């Protein structure tokens, strides 16, 4: 119970600490968008709007006021969930973003699970093969994959598994003609709730390539961190004592070393989650995946400032929150931090 309370206090302190950081980010992003040579009032009106209508709209949006007053107006509205109106879709920005958010969350979470699985298994295999040619080849492959950005992996997977070996679909989230009743807004979960294996298989096939592109771009870092952490862990005295007690290599690895060596991986996953979230920008566009990343690209093409602002803040908030959760996880898993 005491440990749980301590972790809650740590999470609370970290979340409170990100409030001023988030406020500064909103100011920077808002200021950057306002100095662009784009008139939000004109963009929010039809092309046939008159000059007077544009001026009236600018007055309504507060664009004739100093930039600090514009930010104050925007901030007061944002606090109550009013993120403005999309100039491209002519509807509430909050509604548009919330419609796309579940798809991106589902993609990122699946990619994270895939990356952690591949990275952990790869790190354990390479460590177990230390001193052999397999370990050298494994580290070489890891370095090669690490050098490839996620969007290039996405293009390679489309070429390999979508064109040369057409195993997976390369766009969308579901086969044409299939419909899923909405329960949770997460397609994989909703397709499972229908009990129709065909629909679930279609959703899984559509998300497979984007998940592989994002996950494989992140997994080499996990491999390297886990491998290095295991090497350092095996130099500790308690590992030598475990060997003197006659424990097998398997028992030492999974019973003693791994639970301590995994801590840097947990911290890495938490701190890099925001990068994985941001990586959806190009991957979603390449696979025509209807998430926030795809929406962000279209918003930038049409200078839809309210949508750009909203998505940028979601990316920022996600990064800050998961960094805080990573700190809390480190506190929970590392006795030295709790006792220090």
Automatic annotation (TrEMBL):
Pfam families: BPD_transp_1, BPD_transp_1_N. Gene3D superfamilies: MetI-like. It is found in: Cell membrane. GO terms for biological process: transmembrane transport. Its main location: membrane. The keyword Zinc does not apply. One of its GO terms (cellular component) is plasma membrane. SUPFAM superfamilies: MetI-like. It comes from the Bacteria. Belongs to the binding-protein-dependent transport system permease family. This is ABC transporter permease.
């Amino acid at each position: 119970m005491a440990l749980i309370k301590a972790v809650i206090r740590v999470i609370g302190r970290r979340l409170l600490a990100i409030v001023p950081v988030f406020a500064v980010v909103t100011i920077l992003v808002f200021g950057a968008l306002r100095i662009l040579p784009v008139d939000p009032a004109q963009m929010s009106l039809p092309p046939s709007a008159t000059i007077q209508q544009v001026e009236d709209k600018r007055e309504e949006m507060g664009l004739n006021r100093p930039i600090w007053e514009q930010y104050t107006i925007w901030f007061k509205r944002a606090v109550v969930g009013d993120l403005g109106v999309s100039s491209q879709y002519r509807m509430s920005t909050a509604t548009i973003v919330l419609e796309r958010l579940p798809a991106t969350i589902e993609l990122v979470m699946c990619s994270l699970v895939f990356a952690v699985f591949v990275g952990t298994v790869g790190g354990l295999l390479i460590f177990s093969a230390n001193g052999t040619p397999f370990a050298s080849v494994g580290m070489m492959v890891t370095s090669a994959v690490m050098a490839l950005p996620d969007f290039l992996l996405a293009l390679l997977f489309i070429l390999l598994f979508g064109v040369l070996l057409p195993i997976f679909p390369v766009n969308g989230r579901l086969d044409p003609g299939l419909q899923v009743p909405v329960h949770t807004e997460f397609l994989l979960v909703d397709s499972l709730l229908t009990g129709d294996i065909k629909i679930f298989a279609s959703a899984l096939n559509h998300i497979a390539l984007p998940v592989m592109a994002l996950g494989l771009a992140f997994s080499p870092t996990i491999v390297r961190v886990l491998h290095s952490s295991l090497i350092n862990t095996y130099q500790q005295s308690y590992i030598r004592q475990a060997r003197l007690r006659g424990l097998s290599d398997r028992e030492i690895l999974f019973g003693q070393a791994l639970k301590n060596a995994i801590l840097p991986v947990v911290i890495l996953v938490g701190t890099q989650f925001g990068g994985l979230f941001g990586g959806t920008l190009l991957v979603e566009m390449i696979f025509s995946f209807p998430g926030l990343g795809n929406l962000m690209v279209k918003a930038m093409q049409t200078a839809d400032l309210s949508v750009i602002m909203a998505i940028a803040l979601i990316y920022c908030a996600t990064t800050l929150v998961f960094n805080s959760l990573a700190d809390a996880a480190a506190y929970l898993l590392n006795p030295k931090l709790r006792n220090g």
